[in-house]
Design a protein that fits this description.
By secondary structure, the protein is mainly α. The protein has 16 helices and no strands.
Amino acid sequence: KLQALRVVPGVPANGDARAAAEWVLKEQPGTDLTWLVRDWSQEAPKDVLAWAEDLTDAEAKRSAQASAVRSLLYADLDEAREVFTKEISPDAEVAAPEPLSSHWGSRDLPAARTWAESLPAGGLRENALGGIARTWAAQDAAAAAQWLQGFEPGDEGDHVVIEFADTVMAREPATALDWPASIKDPVLRGAQVEDLVSRWLQMDAGAAREWISNTDQLSAGARRRVLDHRVSAFRSGSRFAQ
């Protein structure tokens, strides 16, 4: 996107991410800057944090700070936790805890889990727990599944189930599709089933179609949607290959 912006009059064309970000903020206030500052954050996360500190545009500040914290995770986890706790806006805090808890969990799952579970109810805690669910599912799906049993259906429980199922899907599609039934929100539940089974169709169309034909988790309309999407994707891919 930065390359595309360079052809627009007024956008800095020298690859200066800061100058480009400032131009975008001037022309399009309220822009999510994640895509624009990603490379800058990877190269100099502290510079991004220093620049974002004085931003008055709340969305730009959130996205820049969250991007910097995510990049800092891979350079210095302890510093990333310190920055998360003391230096970023509340909006950025809600955006950053999932990668933080996930990366932390890959190194020290008990400590990351304790931290996530200690957070007050709300989006911050939900996202942190989602990161734990994703990392734990990759490490030990059976143990993570037992942990999930302790959540009541609702916003928090729905979020961890989605993260868990998304992760398990790569290895155990049928097991992953057992979990959406526990999602309280019917719209979210239906969307999750469709997303998972659509992915399964790409991985193993025969097994997925058999599951589709026998499940009561999909309405007739949902069946048509996922199967039609599969056919459309296949035809599109075939034309592309030609």
